[in-house]
């Protein structure tokens, strides 16, 4: 709107300048000719002075009119030049404002700052490390266990062939030969849990992006609402000034000023309310990114490139929460298998290498022991563990199906919202244009007493409401489209070093 008014004033002044140039072109030679004639008449001498008094008097009047014409022309040039300077300063201020906005925080920058600040993302990183530690433990069950053992014995004996104090030193190697392959199942389950935590972290990043995006577009909408209210406030102030002049001339009633002031004061209260909303939204954004912000701005205001819905539905299997639920189901299946291995026998190997041995036989350097354990009855512990694991597996399977169905519903809903908001935006664009034209027509008609002040106030209110609704729908459309892109994983990624 500001650029529209600047452009209109610029074109108007250019046209005035052209007309003034034409006027100067026609008037200036005649004025110069009159001045030259006066100078020539004075140079002829004093002998003809008496005879030319009347003629000189007429020339003076004519020259006076020429001087007045030249003065008015030069004054007009000065005023237009001043106006051009003002417009130049206005354009310069607009360029400075644009440059300042170019250094503002973009949505991508804010999201990357939020990733660094978010405690939820940091907790998810630690959960990944925890799952990796569990995998390391599962790997340790496959590898042999090696340790050093020393046994000191003190005994009370009267047999001279036995010492009262003996000790034994040995290196012990233990290895599980067979345990139903539960170690490998445990490793596979731990690997699935690692992947689950990784995609849960990505899902948390997606949720964080939506929070940042919603707050970002809310701030932009509130900024446009504030600008709209300030523009309306200026219009009403100008309106009151004009009404006061008309009242002094008897063309308007004092009640028209009062009704306009009521609208102005209500508007000022609404401006304060919007300021509070802006402050609250700014504090929320600062909480998300962990630092203060001064300005935010969209990188570009291009049209939304909406694909066919089938293109978005194809990305459902790659959604982070879908993959996290899938790996959670895999981990539950491995746990169920591990519980069932409790019914299988277990074979272990233990090897001892002696450094010092006092027990019989004393000349033994090493020994090996193979143990076979066959479970017969363990008080229903294994049966209970199997039932619990099977129940958890079924829960994970149902959770996976629910997550998949929710993803389909979310994409369908967001796609519909983008379509509807796009159609609303097209209609609101036309409504805003009509509201601006209506305000212009009502203002012009009021000057010729074709409408009353209430009609003008109604046009101002309609313009204000339509402009606010336009930006509400505009940023609502951007917000839905941003959520749709996030729903298929199209969010900024952190650069990994």
TrEMBL record:
Q: Spell out the residue ranges making up region: Disordered.
A: 41-63
Q: What's the source species' lineage?
A: Bacteria, Pseudomonadati, Candidatus Omnitrophota, Candidatus Omnitrophus
- Coiled-coil boundaries: 219-246
What protein does this entry describe? Outer membrane efflux protein
Just give the chief location class. Answer: membrane
Q: Name one GO molecular function term.
A: efflux transmembrane transporter activity
Query: Where is composition skewed (Basic and acidic residues) in this entry?
Result: 41-57
In Pfam terms, one family for this protein is OEP
Highest taxon, organism lineage: Bacteria
Any one cellular-component term (Gene Ontology): efflux pump complex
